[in-house]
Specification:
The protein has a single domain (31-53, 75-220), classed as Rossmann fold (3-Layer(aba) Sandwich). 33% of the residues lie in helices and 27% in strands. With 226 residues, it is of the alpha/beta class. The strands form 2 sheets. It has a 6-stranded mixed beta sheet, sandwiched between helices. A 4-stranded antiparallel beta sheet has the order 2-1-4-5, with helices on one face. It is globular. The mean pLDDT is 88. It is built from 7 helices and 10 strands.
Length: 226
C-alpha cells in the first residue's frame, strides 16, 4: 500500500517559493491501477518522483507498506526502491553500452539475486524480446527499448510499478502494445500500477483516476482512491 499524508513540494524559482504540488492525502491499496492525469506543469511527474523516493517532499509523509520513506537515509531508500519499486521512464534511460539482456540484468546483480541470468531471460520472453537480448539500445526501435525498460523495472518483482508517460514517445500502435504489456504485468503480479498519462483512453482503463491542475487534486475526490 502507498499512503500520502499532507504531502507537498515547493521549490525556489526566481528567488521566490513556487509550490509544484499542494498538500495531498491519498491511499493506494495493493493491486490497484491509478491513472494520474492533468495538463503539463500540473505536478504529475513531481508526484511520481516523490512516490519513488527520487525527490523529497517539502511537507508530509510518504509510506510504502507502512515504512515512512521520508525518514530513510539514502542507502536505506535505495534498498527499498530496489526491493519494492519499479520505475518506467518516458525516455527509456537504458544504458547504451549494455545489451538489452545486460540492461535487465543490472538491477538483479545490484540486489545480488542468485537466479539473475535465467530471470533476465524469462523477462525478455515476457516482453516478447527473447530474440533481441543481444542487441544494444541503438539497434532497437522505440517500442522495443520501452519493453526492455519495463522488463528492467520488473527485474526484482516489485509490488509497485510507477510509469511516467511510458507511451509518450511512441506511435499509437506501439503505445497500445506497451500498455498491454503493463496491464498484463499488473494483472498477473497484482502489483500497484501508477501511470502518468495525457491520454484519456489509457486513463479510462484505470481503477481510479487522480486529476491534477496547478498542483492540486481536482475533479476526482481523493477519497475515491482510498
Amino acid at each position: 500500500m502507498i499512503e500520502l499524508r499532507g504531502v507537498s513540494k515547493t521549490v525556489e524559482s526566481g528567488g521566490r517559493p513556487l509550490t509544484i504540488l499542494h498538500s495531498l492525502d491519498l491511499s493506494i491499496p495493493s493491486g490497484q491501477f491509478v491513472a494520474v492525469v492533468g495538463p503539463s506543469g500540473s505536478g504529475k511527474s513531481t508526484l511520481l518522483g516523490l512516490l519513488a523516493g527520487l525527490d523529497e517532499p517539502s511537507t508530509g509523509r510518504i509510506l510504502i507498506d507502512g515504512i515512512d520513506i521520508t525518514r530513510l537515509g539514502e542507502d536505506e531508500l535505495a534498498r527499498l526502491r530496489g526491493e519494492k519499486i519499479g520505475f518506467v521512464f518516458q525516455f527509456f534511460h537504458l544504458v547504451p553500452s549494455l545489451t538489452a539482456f545486460e540492461n535487465i540484468l543490472v538491477p538483479m546483480e545490484i540486489a545480488k539475486r542468485r537466479n539473475a541470468v535465467p530471470r533476465a531471460r524469462q523477462l525478455l520472453d515476457e516482453v516478447e524480446l527473447s530474440d533481441r537480448g543481444h542487441h544494444y539500445p541503438s539497434q532497437l526501435s522505440g517500442g522495443e527499448q520501452q519493453r526492455v525498460a519495463i522488463a528492467r523495472a520488473l527485474a526484482n518483482d516489485p509490488p509497485i510499478v510507477l510509469a511516467d508517460e511510458p507511451t509518450g514517445n511512441l506511435d499509437s500502435t506501439t503505445g497500445r502494445h506497451i500498455m498491454k504489456v503493463l496491464l498484463e504485468v499488473r494483472r498477473v503480479r497484482r502489483s500497484i500500477l501508477v501511470l502518468v498519462t495525457h491520454e484519456a483512453e489509457l486513463a479510462s482503463l484505470a481503477d481510479a483516476r487522480l486529476s491534477l491542475r496547478d498542483g492540486r487534486a481536482v475533479d476526482t475526490p481523493v477519497e475515491a482512491l482510498r
